[in-house]
Recover the amino acids of this structure.
């Protein structure tokens, strides 16, 4: 009787150890996912800053070109054309910025969906592991009780 009790306790402890291992692996995976998200956000911020700097440089170059053109040729028609060009360039820059923001939003949404899928899979694995552990414990306990009742 005492040996059967020790066997039951040992099997239960083995099942619990495997459950704790699964939980530890899941926690490590979640930490890795969080680190990856932080890195991606930092990269996106750096890319946006670089794009803004490039746009500022382009605007400065355009302004310098416009000033040179105005200094060289002071004619009303050319000034009007330059103003139209500036408006077109600003519109193009705004369109580029909007496209970049949309691309980053789509990337972030895809990453978020992937993370949700991974978390759901992890939760299913935890539930399956816990269920299997409980079933094993119930089966072993039933067998031990049956053997004990028969003897």
């Amino acid at each position: 009787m005492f040996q059967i009790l020790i066997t039951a306790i040992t099997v239960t402890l083995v099942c619990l150890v495997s459950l704790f291992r699964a939980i530890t692996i899941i926690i490590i995976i979640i930490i890795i996912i969080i680190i990856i998200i932080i890195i991606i956000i930092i990269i996106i911020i750096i890319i946006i800053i670089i794009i803004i700097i490039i746009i500022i440089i382009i605007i400065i170059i355009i302004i310098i070109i416009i000033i040179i053109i105005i200094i060289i040729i002071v004619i009303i028609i050319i000034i009007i054309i330059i103003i139209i060009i500036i408006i077109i360039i600003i519109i193009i820059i705004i369109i580029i910025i909007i496209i970049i923001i949309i691309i980053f939003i789509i990337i972030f949404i895809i990453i978020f969906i992937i993370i949700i899928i991974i978390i759901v899979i992890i939760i299913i694995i935890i539930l399956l592991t816990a269920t299997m552990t409980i079933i094993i414990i119930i089966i072993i306990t039933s067998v031990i009780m049956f053997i004990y009742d028969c003897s």
